[in-house]
Amino acid sequence: MSGKQYSVVTQHEDWARSDEFHNSFLHENDPILDAALANSRANELPEISVSAAQGKLLKLLAISIGAKRILEIGTLGGYSTIWLGRALPEDGHLITLELDEKHARVARENLLAAGLSSKAEVIVGIALDSLANLHPEVLFDFIFIDADKPSNVAYFTEAKRLVRKGGIIVRLMRIILPSSTHSVTLQVVDNVVMSGRVADPSYTDEMTVGVRDLLAAIKGDKEVDATTIATVGKKGYDGFLYAVRT
């Protein structure tokens, strides 16, 4: 292989298999999380929650900064909320915002089953309205955004207001691709994903444009220091934006 570069075509099933392989070593069986996903499916919630690997990453990131106050924008069935809630100390608190009352009900059921109902508060309503009504005496340590892409800039602006200096904002940059595009060529040498619709100007749908708008808004912003990481895994072609409030 010395001095050579070559390409290999991978597909969604390869990424999912890789996720499962790594998780088999690094994750223990978790009936509570499994039950949360099962309850969400039983209530016909969209199957768009973070993967187990992404959830554990969120937990570890929150633990790494000693987060005691966490804000989540976009609850769905509370799967990511459970991961984040488990990062909290005994006196920690989490607020999660959800538009849909049904989703919120399912999330509360899952949080209760996970033993987190005393730490996690689900607020129902339009997220931007809920955010505008938040005026905490103590700012949040960690904010996770996983909601509609067209509101990216507005969510991020509010997150900057609500997070302490040195605190973290994570934005899940998921773009849901048609199944026919779940194949990508990887350069094995440096493992860089060589495809992405955000960078392709021919894509002009509101989700893609929402991600571009956020990147453009952050460029030159002296209030944050940020980077994006592209990933592939069980949830497909994904990625995070990671920002530190300066």
What does this protein look like?
- The structure is a single chain.
- This protein is α/β, with parallel strands linked by helices.
- Helix content is 37%, strand content 26%.
- The chain is built from 8 helices and 10 strands.
- Strands 4-3-2-5-6-10-9 form a 7-stranded mixed sheet, with helices on both faces.
- Helix 2 packs antiparallel against helix 5 (101-113) and helix 3 (52-64) packs parallel to helix 4 (79-85).
- The radius of gyration is 18 Å and the shape is globular.
- It starts with 6 loop residues before the first strand and ends with a strand.
What descriptive keywords fit this protein?
7-stranded mixed β-sheet, 3-stranded antiparallel β-sheet, alpha/beta, 246 residues, 8 helices
Q: TL;DR of this structure?
A:
By secondary structure, the chain is an alpha/beta fold.
Order of helices and strands: EHHHEHEHEHEHEEEHEE
Radius of gyration: 18 Å
Tertiary shape: globular
For the report, how would you describe the main beta sheet?
Answer: 7 strands, mixed
The assembly state of the depicted protein chains is single chain
* Tally of strands: 10
β-sheet strand percentage: 25-35%
Q: Helix share of residues?
A: 25-40%
Mean pLDDT: 88
Residue windows where pLDDT falls under 50 for at least 5 positions: 176-195
